[in-house]
Each structure stands twice: as C-alpha cells, then as structure tokens.
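Changelog note: in this version the structure field was regenerated for every chain. One regenerated record is shown below for reference.
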Amino acid sequence: MNNLTKMKIEKPAHEVFEAFVDPAKIKQFWFSSSSARWEQGKTVTLSYEEYHAQFDIEVAEVEPNHRIAFYWGEGEERHLVTITLEESDHASTIIVVNEEGFRDDDEDLLPKLIDNKEGWVYMLTCLKAYVEFGITTLRAGLVK
C-alpha cells in the first residue's frame, strides 16, 4: 500500500530539486543535516538534531529536476519514497510524494498512514515557505 501527497510550489523544478539534493539547502526546511549531496547509489546520513535522531537513506534513483527515489526504514518498515517534480510551467512545480511499503495487514495501518500523511504535508509546507519566501523557521517546529 502507498501514501500519496501533492503540493504546488511557485518555483521552477530545478530550484525545488536542488532544495532536496543540496545539503546546504535541505537543512533549511527538512533535516538539520545531510551528509552528502543526494546522488543515485549513495547512502546518505540524515539527522534531526532537535529530535536526537539520525538514520541512513539509500538513494535509488535521481533524474535531475524530475525524480528522486530513496529507501528508508528497516525490515518490515522499509519504504520506498519517490518524489516526482512536474513542472507545470517555467515558474511552478507540482511535487508528488509517493511512499510505498505499508502492509495492508498491519493492525496500525490507519494511524501510520495518517501520521505519514501529516509528515509529508508538513515537510512540503516547510519546503514551500523556504523556496518561495526564504522562510527557514518552520523546520523542526512540529511537536509530537
């Protein structure tokens, strides 16, 4: 089972793509650090200093300005996330985040899907604020 989230960003696909793959930019809206530029075949360590969390992702596919796919999680919780950038004109991009790997027979499937959707919407909101307006103060503001 998958979870799909979409948002429109009023910037060209190249700018949105760079916000994800460039460690200096991703820390402005999502993680507090990224160990390397996201490139196909790389394992990248991501950190949330505020939450004392660190984990690795495996970058499975990178098509510049169009698609980024990566694996995160472990065991039965390992998921494939595909971020697709659809430039609707030269000034805006539709971002589609598709996370696959949820088990249909999981007793906690509904709460996991809701929590997951909230996370993607929050990240995309922080991305929109950063790339459109230069706002960096939303990142890591979510309290659970």
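Spot check on this record: The beta strands are 2-9, 33-34, 43-48, 53-63, 67-72, 79-89, 92-100. Residues 26 and 84 are 16 Å apart (CA to CA).
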